[in-house]
């Protein structure tokens, strides 16, 4: 589980927002700010109302996200100063870490994008988005892929790894939290760990569209790599050669299935066929 560097980022679909990227060094098992997008800074009328609404929005998200299994969306204010927001913590993250991650990404948003009305902040453990436009429930396919360009996997595991992730794209929409983990047993070549998630404001069918679009769009860049992550506005995928997530059990299901095995996912695919 050593240090892990992400060196390249690829954007899917030219986003309408102006782009600020940080070059970064991620330890795969730690939280980290990964990327952000801020709309152009502009001064606008009703700015002080907007700032007051934003403050109350961010407080509400940080308070409610952790107690709603990591997802919360709401809006504050009215008409031209109304602001919509959502948070989505990664499904394996504890409520404490979720709350702390939301607070930290709020602080980050206010320091990096102080004059912006459309803001997206990706941390490894949580996702924060707010805007004066109501984006809630509307699928947006903007995504960024993060990977080390030369970190190729064992060629004999590449197609199994791709199947693992396609399996997740098919089954995540049917999970109560739209979050799932899958493990590929590679024998002497080691295990591969996949995880995928959608924000819970979108429908299951949009979740499936979102994940499959990421796999299609980035296939040539991520397809042969052993460590990569894709961050979108509505869905996310992670793939690593070490267990980068916390042990997870679905709080909405009664008994303790800890990790979905590759077998579970394959069964799912076979059942659909
Ligand atoms: C965000 O990440 C960048 C690059 O890794 C780092 O320099 C910066 O200090 C981080 N900021 C915060 C608030 O965590
Ligand atoms: C939030 O920031 C504080 C102070 O930098 C840090 O100690 C804490 O670990 C961060 N929380 C998360 C979840 O990243
Ligand atoms: C990318 O991966 C290669 C192969 O594993 C490694 O040698 C190199 O140090 C990595 N680059 C960075 C910047 O992490
Ligand atoms: C997850 O649980 C297993 C078995 O209980 C343990 O060996 C492992 O260290 C745990 N991993 C994490 C990241 O907590």
TrEMBL record:
<dbReference type="InterPro" id="IPR038408">
    <property type="entry name" value="GNK2_sf"/>
</dbReference>
<dbReference type="GO" id="GO:0005576">
    <property type="term" value="C:extracellular region"/>
</dbReference>
<feature type="domain" description="Gnk2-homologous">
    <location>
        <begin position="32"/>
        <end position="135"/>
    </location>
</feature>
<protein>
    <submittedName>
        <fullName>Cysteine-rich repeat secretory protein 38-like isoform X3</fullName>
    </submittedName>
</protein>
<keyword id="KW-0677">Repeat</keyword>
<feature type="domain" description="Gnk2-homologous">
    <location>
        <begin position="139"/>
        <end position="244"/>
    </location>
</feature>
<comment type="similarity">
    <text>Belongs to the cysteine-rich repeat secretory protein family.</text>
</comment>
<keyword id="KW-0732">Signal</keyword>
<dbReference type="Pfam" id="PF01657">
    <property type="entry name" value="Stress-antifung"/>
</dbReference>
<keyword id="KW-0964">Secreted</keyword>
<dbReference type="InterPro" id="IPR002902">
    <property type="entry name" value="GNK2"/>
</dbReference>
<dbReference type="InterPro" id="IPR050581">
    <property type="entry name" value="CRR_secretory_protein"/>
</dbReference>
<feature type="signal peptide">
    <location>
        <begin position="1"/>
        <end position="18"/>
    </location>
</feature>
